[in-house]
Amino acid sequence: LQFQEHDFLQLLGLDKVPSPQKFQPVPRILKKIFHDQEAAATIGVSQDLCFVKELGVRGNVLRLLPDQGFFLYSKKIPQASSCLQKLLYFNLSAVKDKEQLTMAQLGLDLGPNTYYHLGPELELALSLVQEPHVWGQAVPKPGKVFVLQSVPWPQGVLHFNLLDVAKDWNNNPQKNVGLFLEIFVKGHGDAGVNFQLEDTCVRLRCSLHASLMVVTLDPEQCHHSSRKKR
Amino acid sequence: AALPAPNVSCKNLCHRHQLFINFRDLGWHKWIIAPKGFMANYCHGDCPFSLTTSLNSSNYAFMQALMHAIDPAIPQAVCIPTKLSPISMLYQDNDDNVILRHYDDMVVDECGCG
After folding, report:
1. How does pLDDT run across A86-109, given as a tens digit for each residue?
2. Cα distance between residue A137 and residue A134, in whole Å
3. Region for A226 from its dihedrals, namely left if φ exceeds 0, alpha if ψ lies in -120 to 50, beta otherwise
4. Of B33, B35, B88, the CB nearest to A23
5. In angstroms, what CA-CA distances link A204 with A122, A148, A186, A201, B102?
6. Who's near A18: CB < 8 A, 6+ residues apart?
7. Interchain CB distance below 8 Å, A64 and B93
8. Does residue A226 surpass a pLDDT of 50?
9. Which of B107, B50, B40 is nearest to B77 (CA)?
10. Residue A163 confidence class, pLDDT cut points 50, 70, 90
11. Which pLDDT does position A143 carry in this prediction?
12. Which helix H or strand E contains B114, and what residues bound it?
């Protein structure tokens, strides 16, 4: 029976029976897509399973990759306005060679309790790490900053398009050494803000949650739509 | 020569039967987040020659049934799924990735002789 189960799991695209220690939280968008498809199937509505209409992209496999990076703590006195530094790392090995990446979206949730009422405005910077991080090194060697965004108030989950970056990582796995995230507090030094800074940063460390949503298209399972067009 | 009429009651004829697959029974509830199970159904029943054409059969099934009547060593047409539909599954793999994927041919919608 186990032998047959293994064969069947391979048909499902799994190398072995997964045995997760605990279930990860499922983002709302994935739940919505799942429930919409389930509802359509129940009432017998035909669906294009190779197009994710909720995201507006072609694809038939959606993956939410958890961040496997870590916080960086500098022994030196950090820049006064720097609140948090983190290496973000996403393992793309689950994406099979034959799959085509059609979407890669970084989700950064700063948490609902990050801000005080009328608290300090945050700014976040994202850059690609150029070399693997060496243990004991304070900060990895970051490349050019490709995202610099002001976050003046709680905005829920922030999304960033990483499709080109993820494609590059997928084609050259050795290049995937992570992203460097740094969050600053704007207006640091103003009267009344200093005492909030430490609390804000501590809360931010506790509540920060990063994930990468990846949509891929398996050409073996999604070949009929191009035929239809012809 | 006329072929003998089979002695088959209607309830034994090929048709779709309900089958709910509960992932807990397979131990798959440990990695499948949703659904908890699904109505997969299955096909079962006889495919007598006289009713082959009315049982959603393929032309091939008709020919096979005809040949079976002539030579019993050739097996009779069997009751099989003729229309299947996909389901979506939300699960977690060993790398803690949450995956939403569609799987074709998981639910039996219609049965026939083939």
Report:
1. 999 999 999 988 999 999 999 999
2. 5
3. alpha
4. B33
5. 11, 18, 15, 5, 36
6. B30, B31, B91, B92, B93, B94
7. no
8. no
9. B50
10. very high
11. 79
12. none
Pairwise CB contact (< 8 Å): B99 & A66: no
- B41-80 in b/e form (b: 16+ CB < 10 A) is bebebbbbbebbeebbbeeebeebbebbbeeeeeebbebb
What is the rounded (10 degree) CA torsion for B102, A222, A228, B59? Answer: -70
Task: At A180, give phi and psi (nearest 5°).
Answer: -105, 120
Q: Which chain A residue shows the shortest CA-CA distance from B37?
A: A38
**For residue B85, how many other CB atoms are within 10 A of its CB?**
15
3 state SS of B54: helix
Beta carbons of A52 and A215 less than 8 angstroms apart:
yes
Give which of B85, B6, B16, B17 is closest to B55, Cα–Cα. B16
**B 71-90 residues with CB < 8 A to A:** 85-88, 90
Q: How far is the C-alpha of A111 from the C-alpha of A196, rounded, in Å? A: 16
Whether residue A60 lies within 8 A of chain B, CB to CB, comes out as yes
Dump pLDDT digits (tens) for B61-112.
888 888 888 999 999 888 999 999 999 999 999 888 999 998 889 999 999 9
- Residue A80 in tokens: 């006064």
SS3 state of residue B74 = coil
Q: Does A45 touch chain B if contact means CB atoms closer than 8 Å?
A: no
